Amino acid sequence: MDVKHAVLDVNDLLIRKIKKKKELSSLDDEIISKYIHQCYAIYPKLERSLREKNIRTVAKSREFNDVVKFARKSLREVYGVFIMDGFEKKSVEMSDQELLLLHRSTKERWNHYAYFYQEIFTSMKDDMTGKKLKVVDLACGLNIASHNVLEKAVPGPIEYVEIEVAKDDVRFIDEYMKDRDLRGKAIALDLTKEEFEKIPLHKGKDEFLVCFLFKLIDTFEATKRHTSKKLIAYLSKFADAIIITFPMKTIGGRKEIEENKRWWLEGFLTANNMKFTKLEIGDEMVFVVRCS
Ligand SMILES: C[S@@+](CC[C@H](N)C(=O)[O-])C[C@H]1O[C@@H](n2cnc3c(N)ncnc32)[C@H](O)[C@@H]1O
Q1: What is the pTM of this model?
Q2: E strand or H helix at 280, and its extent?
Q3: Can you tell me which atom of ligand 1 is nearest the CA of 247?
Q4: CB contact at 8 A, 235 and 284
Q5: Shortest CA distance to 238 belongs to which of 185, 178, 192, 291?
Q6: Is 192 close to ligand 1, i.e. is its CB under 6 Å away?
């Protein structure tokens, strides 16, 4: 008997195949499985047909490849597209600038990070004086590598909570934080599961809590409607401020993203009596939302 196939099922084979794409190789099996099941939910016949096939030959079937294609395309949109060449070789020995260039979002920001943080924090500095800043960076990518610039833009010390979806990426962020002697921790969380109570949002009397939602909620609204609104409403119960940003150009900077794609957020914030200011920084639209 073929031992390799005897212990694997179709799901395992699909996961293995999907992970062969370099930019998806660090994703957890559980996340990949979620997209396989999303495909089955849309095309139930595919699942039935795969289950009926011989496990030894199933990987050669058209149906198998259709599921692989569907999952890879969806995962690329929410994860793979942000990974730059060399991401899998990242190490704490690299400079912060080298690391910022390995993720598309930080790469797009790297030459104006100082201005980016200064603009965001200028209006909050008075309220922060004498307090420690606690940053909760949701779907953080490699933004932690900009900590040196952030430290210069705020008056006091900083504690970081970094949240990302892939455990491998979280392990790296943790290692980076230890290497750079940063206070805080990194946590693996799939935010679309809406288990928001797992986000550490407690704050002491002498702390100012700011949540970063950088270039995230437009993707979330496209893949799971209303998750972003629920997330913002939840964070606003704990945070002093939430910083929400939108890309103003499509990936690769080819096309402008129309302003009406952001109107829903303005409507949502206004309806919930949340005060906000809008800033345009680089190719990013930034909403500074004050919560208390
Ligand atoms: C456009 S990038 C923004 C990265 C970072 N916030 C920045 O602006 O530098 C979106 C990030 O969301 C992460 N992500 C995608 N799906 C997620 C999920 N379900 N839960 C948590 N993070 C997720 C991706 O891994 C990616 O790093």
Answers
A1: 0.93
A2: strand 275-281
A3: 1
A4: no
A5: 291
A6: yes
Q: Of 27, 74, 117, 165, which is best to mutate to test ligand 1, by the most ligand atoms within 8 angstroms of its C-beta?
A: 165
Q: Which atom of ligand 1 is nearest to the CA of 245?
A: 8
Q: Which residues share a beta bridge with 241?
A: 210, 290
CA dist., res. 91 & res. 208, Å (int): 31
Pair 203, 134: CB distance under 8 Å: yes
- In the chain the domains, ranked by start, together with CATH numbers, are 3-78 (no CATH), 87-290 (3.40.50.150)
Q: Which atom of ligand 1 is nearest to the CA of 216?
A: 10
Digitized pLDDT (tens) for each residue of the chain, 292 residues in all: 444 444 569 999 999 999 999 999 989 999 999 999 999 999 999 999 998 998 889 999 999 999 999 999 999 989 998 999 999 999 999 999 999 999 999 999 999 999 999 999 998 988 999 999 999 999 999 999 999 999 999 988 999 999 999 999 999 999 999 999 999 999 999 999 999 999 999 999 999 999 999 999 988 877 788 899 999 999 999 999 999 999 988 777 777 777 777 889 999 999 999 999 999 999 999 999 999 7
**Partner residues linked to 249 by β-bridges:** 256
Coil, helix or strand for 252?
A: coil
Reading the block at residue 42, the tokens are 């849309």
Minimum CA distance residue for ligand 1 atom 13: 139
